[in-house]
Amino acid sequence: MITITDLRKVYRQGSREVVALDGVSLSVAKGHIHGIIGHSGAGKSTLVRCLTLLDRPTSGSVSVDGRELAGVSDRELLSARRKIGMVFQHANLFDSRTTAENVAYPLELLGTKRSKIKDKVSNLLDLVGLTQFANAYPSQLSGGQKQRVGIARALATDPDVLLCDEPTSALDPKTTDEILELIKDVRDRLEITVLIITHEMGVVKKACNSVSLLEAGKIVEHGPISEVVADIDGRLSHALLPLPGEMPQDLPPGTIMDLLYSGADAVHPVISTLARQFDIDVNVLAGSVEDLGGAQFAHLRIHLPVGVDIDAVTAHLTASGIAVSVKEA
C-alpha cells in the first residue's frame, strides 16, 4: 500500500546543505499500522511534510496504492493529497465551527453537495463516537474529543492512508489508550493503512504491527514488532522490552547474561531447568514479560557464578530457542 524508496530531502541554508532525510526506504502493507519513532531532530517532521507533499522531496519516491505521489504536477497536487488523511498532534480545529462543521470542511473545499456532506459527516461522527456532540464547539470539547473530531475530519475524503503525527502526545494516559483503540477500530472498519509518527514507545507497543527507528534522517532499524523485539541486541528490542532498574554494582565475580524468548518458550521454567541441567545457582537480576506484536516475550537478566561453562550454557539456551547476550560482570 505505501512504498517509500530512497527518499532524500536536502535543505540549503546559504552555501550550507542540511540533509534532513537521507535515503529513507520502507514498505507498509494495506491495513497495517506502522509506527515511525525517533527523537527530536531525527527527521520525523520532514518525513511528514514529504509524505503529505507540503515539501517536495529532493529525490526518491512515495507511492500509495501504486500511485507515485512525489513527482505529481502542481495541478494534480490536491487530488494526490486526498490519498493521505492527516491527524495532527493538536487537532487544529476551527474555533468558530461546530464539530460537524469542522468535519465537513474538507468536503466543502471539494465542492461536495450539501446532502452528501450531511450524510458523510453523520457517518463519520458515529464512527468516532461523537454523534451527540455534532453541534458543540471546540471550546466545549475535551482534548480526546477534539482529537476524535480531527480523526473524523481526516477521513472525510476517503483517504487510503491515515497519517498521524504525534496523535497522543498532548493527551493523558487514559485518553491516549482510547484514541489508539479508536485508530485500530478505524483501521479495521475502513481497511485503511495507518502511519503513526511518534516519540512514545508506548504508542508503538499498543497500536502498531510494525515499526521503524528513524535517526539522523535514516531508518536504522525496521520490521514487524515480533521480529524487532526478537533481536536481543537491537535498540528497538531494548526500548520495547526494557529491563527494569540499573545493573547492580556489587555483584560477586561471575557472568551476566541477557535472555530473550517468546511464544510457548516464554512460559517455560527456563531458570529452574538451567539450574538443574548444570547444577548451578542462577541469580535473576531483572525481568520483563509482555505481549508485543501478537506474541508473548520474556526478557531476563541473570548472573552465573565463576566456574560455569558459559559456552555450554549458551549452547543449551540457544538450542532451546532462547536468544543470549553475554555481558561483562
From TrEMBL:
Residues covered by the ABC transporter domain: 2-241
One MF annotation (Gene Ontology) recorded for this entry: ATP binding
Keywords linked to the UniProt accession: Amino-acid transport, ATP-binding, Cell membrane, Membrane, Nucleotide-binding, Translocase, Transport
A Pfam family assignment: ABC_tran
Keyword ATP-binding carried by entry: yes
SUPFAM superfamilies the record matches: ACT-like (SSF55021), P-loop containing nucleoside triphosphate hydrolases (SSF52540)
Keyword match rRNA-binding: no
CDD domains xref list: ABC_MetN_methionine_transporter
Gene3D superfamilies: 3.30.70.260, P-loop containing nucleotide triphosphate hydrolases
InterPro entries listed in its UniProt record: AAA+_ATPase, ABC_transporter-like_ATP-bd, ABC_transporter-like_CS, ACT-like_dom_sf, MetN_ABC, MetN_ABC_transporter-like, NIL_domain, P-loop_NTPase
Protein name: Methionine import ATP-binding protein MetN
Naturally occurring in which organism (per UniProt): Zhihengliuella salsuginis
Lineage: Bacteria, Bacillati, Actinomycetota, Actinomycetes, Micrococcales
